[in-house]
């Protein structure tokens, strides 16, 4: 292990959290899990007694040589990133923060990843293990600090994206990666069709691309890797320099595109690679193509059924990021088909028999 300055309050309140969960289980009291509360917009509103996790913070262990860090779920994302950066390392899935109070537990619970996701992997791909507070108020360890096969439920990865509906994340172990030696961001004036063709062409080549987006007549690309490969690709592509902060503004939705007006809601369309533009009545200026075109941000007043039917026909799905109270959809996530819903219900019944963990957060029925 290595000595390091802890950039967040080092406090273990797991016993208190276990007792609160145990009491809720016995009294059948619904709990609303709260960390930094910066992602409350993502999902359905939850009615329940707050279970505050933000105080459970601090870096438990960090081994830069082994590229492994274990951190308490209430630790601020910014504090963890600062500690990793001191050793020239990073969270490779580039989690959005949505605010200074953002916690690493919230980042994993929502399962959201930034612009690097298609090239590096999703949040769950870097979770090695967790300590989880179960419905009975027990603190159990799942997984470990190395990549390995597991038997039964891989609960650590199930927790990524579960929105706190299966248990309470207490500690999380991650695989981290070195920060790339070289970085160059560029933009190229280009129409949408040409941009999608260009991205398909570049995707077949061994180039150090770690982010690609298109909006309003410009293709944006980030190059990361060794000095020679980044320089060679930069010379090959040309274009105008682009500030690296562009990608943070895209991930954290602080870019001007995400300003909503005229009663429009924000949707994320998740589609297979190289999907052509969908036949939707949406102005080109109200669509931002991210992840090389696989993730598309859309500002629209179109109804949920229209968007979801178009996505489903293309092999994808649509998620609403705007709460219903602000004009968004009543059900933000795409309804499950009968087979998948059965598995969801069975899993929820196994891990949360009384429905105390964030009830209704994902779907009204469970």
What is the topological layout?
Layout: H1 14-27, E1 31-34, E2 49-52, E3 59-63, E4 68-72, H2 77-85, E5 89-90, H3 104-110, H4 117-120, E6 127-133, E7 139-143, H5 155-158, E8 168-175, E9 177-178, E10 182-189, H6 192-203, E11 209-215, E12 218-225, H7 227-237, E13 240-241, H8 245-251, E14 265-270, E15 287-290, E16 295-300, H9 304-313, E17 317-320, H10 338-351
Parallel strand pairs: 1-2
Antiparallel strand pairs: 3-4, 4-8, 5-9, 6-7, 6-8, 10-12, 10-13, 11-12, 14-16, 14-17, 15-16
Describe what this molecule looks like in 3D.
This protein has 3 domains: 14-178, Uridine Diphospho-n-acetylenolpyruvylglucosamine Reductase, domain 3, CATH 3.30.465; 182-251, Alpha-Beta Plaits (2-Layer Sandwich), CATH 3.30.70; 256-326, Alpha-Beta Plaits. Residues 1-7 and 146-152 have low confidence and may be disordered. The strands form 5 sheets. Strands 3-4-8-6-7 form a 5-stranded antiparallel beta sheet. A 4-stranded antiparallel beta sheet has the order 11-12-10-13. The protein has a 4-stranded antiparallel beta sheet with strand order 15-16-14-17, covered by helices on one side. The chain has 10 helices and 17 strands. The chain has helices at residues 14-27, 77-85, 104-110, 117-120, 155-158, 192-203, 227-237, 245-251, 304-313, 338-351; strands at 31-34, 49-52, 59-63, 68-72, 89-90, 127-133, 139-143, 168-175, 177-178, 182-189, 209-215, 218-225, 240-241, 265-270, 287-290, 295-300, 317-320. The protein is an alpha+beta fold and 366 residues long. The longest helix is centred in the first third of the chain and has 14 residues, at 14-27. The two termini are 42 Å apart. A hairpin with a 5-residue loop joins β6 (127-133) and β7.
């Amino acid at each position: 292990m290595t000595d390091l300055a802890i950039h967040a309050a080092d406090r273990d309140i797991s016993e208190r959290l276990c007792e609160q969960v145990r009491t809720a289980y016995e009294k059948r009291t619904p709990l609303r899990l709260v960390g930094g509360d910066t992602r409350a917009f993502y999902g359905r509103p939850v009615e329940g007694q707050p279970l505050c996790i933000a105080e459970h913070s601090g870096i438990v262990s960090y081994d830069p040589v082994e590229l492994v860090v274990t951190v308490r779920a209430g630790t601020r994302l910014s504090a963890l990133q600062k500690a990793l950066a001191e050793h020239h390392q990073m969270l490779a899935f580039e989690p959005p923060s949505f605010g200074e109070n953002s916690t690493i537990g919230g980042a994993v619970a929502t399962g959201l990843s930034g612009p690097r996701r298609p090239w590096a992997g999703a949040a769950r791909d870097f979770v090695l293990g967790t300590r989880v507070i179960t419905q009975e108020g027990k603190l159990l360890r799942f997984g470990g600090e190395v990549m390995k096969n597991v038997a039964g439920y891989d609960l650590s990865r199930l927790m990524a994206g579960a929105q706190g509906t299966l248990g309470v994340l207490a500690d999380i172990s991650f695989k981290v990666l070195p920060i790339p030696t070289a970085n160059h961001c560029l933009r190229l004036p280009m129409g949408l069709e040409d941009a999608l063709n260009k991205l398909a062409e570049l995707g077949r080549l061994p180039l150090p691309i770690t982010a690609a987006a298109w909006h309003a007549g410009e293709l944006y690309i980030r190059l990361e890797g060794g000095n020679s490969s980044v320089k060679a690709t930069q010379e090959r592509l040309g274009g105008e320099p682009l500030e690296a902060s562009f990608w943070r503004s895209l991930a954290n939705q602080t870019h001007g595109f995400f300003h909503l007006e005229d009663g429009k809601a924000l949707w994320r369309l998740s589609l297979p690679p190289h999907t052509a533009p969908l036949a939707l009545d949406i102005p080109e200026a109200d669509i931002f193509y991210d992840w090389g075109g696989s993730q598309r941000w859309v500002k629209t007043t179109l109804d949920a059924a229209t968007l979801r039917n178009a996505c489903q026909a293309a092999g994808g799905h649509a998620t609403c990021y705007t709460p219903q109270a602000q004009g968004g959809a009543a059900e933000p996530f795409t309804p499950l088909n009968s087979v998948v819903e059965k598995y969801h219900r069975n899993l929820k019944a196994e891990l949360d028999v009384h429905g105390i963990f964030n009830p209704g957060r994902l779907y009204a029925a469970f």
